[in-house]
Write a structure and sequence with these properties.
Length: 201
Amino acid sequence: MTATSSLKRSYRLIAPFYDLAVEQATRGMRRHSLHGLPSRPGTILLAGVGTGLDLPHLPAQHRYIGVDLTGAMLRRSLPRAGRLDFRPVQGDVHHLPFADASFDAVVAHLILAVVPQPALCLAEIARVLKPGGEALILDKFLRRQQKAPLRRLLNPLARRIATRFDVVFEDLLDASPDLALRDDSPALAGGWFRRIRLVRR
């Protein structure tokens, strides 16, 4: 079984319980991150939209496309869309099914530390962003040379179930030279979760 197939199976199984585990803990930092969306109407990609926990907090002026690996997650996202212009698309964030420079902004909340190849995912985000467009990232990351022994100890088990604890964001950014860092702020758990804004050069 490939890493992507394993991830798809895991999230198909946890879809009914995902909201209970994640929604309340992440609501505030999601809202804060989404304040970074442009005010001018545009087309926004929600990469790894999941069950749509971001949808109730999105401004109404944009057109949204939400990509997720599993139909189970996408089906749960639809009731949260309300009156938003929202289209769900089943697809792999490692190989986004969109042309280059298709989006004015990309929201990538709790996805880079989940996917098997986070650097490839970030490179795809860069590819589909228009020049000057921003990527809003929210996730748990290690910093270079950060020891974090407990997280590293738990990582082999955690990554088999749902997420990774060993992703170093700076390594991902180095592999995507078309993206520049605009902001990097602690979001939760003493800075383990970070709220990051990138701009497409």
